[in-house]
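Sample pair:
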Amino acid sequence: MLSDMQFQCFQEDTISINHNWFNGYNLCWVDYNEAKEYIEDIKDICDDFEGLCQRNLAANTGMNFYDFLIFLARLCFANLVQICHLRGDGERSVCNMSPVAQQLTSNLVSIQKIALKVNSLEGLTKTHKSHFNSTETLSNPEFIKLCMVLEKTYGVIYSQQTSDYHSKRSLVDDIRDLDIIKGHTFEVSTPEDLAKLIDHFIRIL
């Protein structure tokens, strides 16, 4: 609860924190085990028990392991786009990066650690794969919106001037001109693919 006695610029109000944010830990350990237990009695007669678990998991939570991997891949690519844009298309080394770029690079490392943990999960099989394609992603208006939001958010956090994009198209054109992206297509089908891709990005940053 905030009051104008504590903060004169505020009238008394209540801050509501949304507890429904997606929780990756719950998905991988709590929600998955729950979905699995519901159908454990048909495991021996089910041709694709794990596939059924993943369908139930998606129905119960809105996302399964493969959706979660796509979520991680898109978030990774959005962070990479911001890093490259901030560095002026790769003109500076990691040690000379701005605080924003250092934070974004740290995000990539964190995403890689999560991908490696996901790679060891029982529910991931070689039969079912996710599919992330960087070229297709760049054509997705929601991804471009994510990039714009990331730029504005970190600009506010670090009090850094951000680009004034008048349209999503101008941002898309700017992104596609980056050397690290121009003429390349990155694909992710497994958590291991994502971990290796992040390794590649970090080496060339």
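The chain has two domains: 23-63, 64-159+169-204.
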